[in-house]
């Protein structure tokens, strides 16, 4: 009976380790960042609108709202700094809000509030709006490429760990 237990335990352990390796090897989205101006933030684009127009940016954050308009989809975002995989770092200080404009229809159920998204696109003309009762000026990004991060990634942000014992 002991040898059967060790066999199944070893097999289960090996399966868990393989799953961890597969997760660690998951590929990040490929963005062409050669034209990206990394110095631009939503706040700097709002402050210097004319100098920023048509420049390429790579920004990300959490979705606040998604609306389908006549011929495009508009996504309101709360920006965060990005990590080396271009994923928003939600534990950092937010960088402000911005709007994404994507030609065509995007499903609001998929691009739902709270989901994480990274966008590569060009800076458009700032747009006025409201947050509650307050006026707000949004930087606008004309999307070239979007990456909607999977919900599973949202739950499993940590790297693979192996250990035996109790943790708090």
Give a structural overview.
With 168 residues, the chain is of the alpha+beta class. It has a domain at 42-155: OB fold (Dihydrolipoamide Acetyltransferase, E2P) (Beta Barrel), CATH 2.40.50. A 5-stranded mixed β-barrel has the order 1-2-3-6-4. Strand 5 and strand 6 (134-148) form a beta hairpin. Mean pLDDT is 85; it is low at 19-25. The protein is 23% helix and 35% strand.
Summary of the model, kept short:
This protein is of the alpha+beta class and 168 residues long. It is built from four helices and six strands; from the N terminus they run αααββββββα. The chain has a domain at 42-155: Nucleic acid-binding proteins (OB fold (Dihydrolipoamide Acetyltransferase, E2P)), CATH 2.40.50.
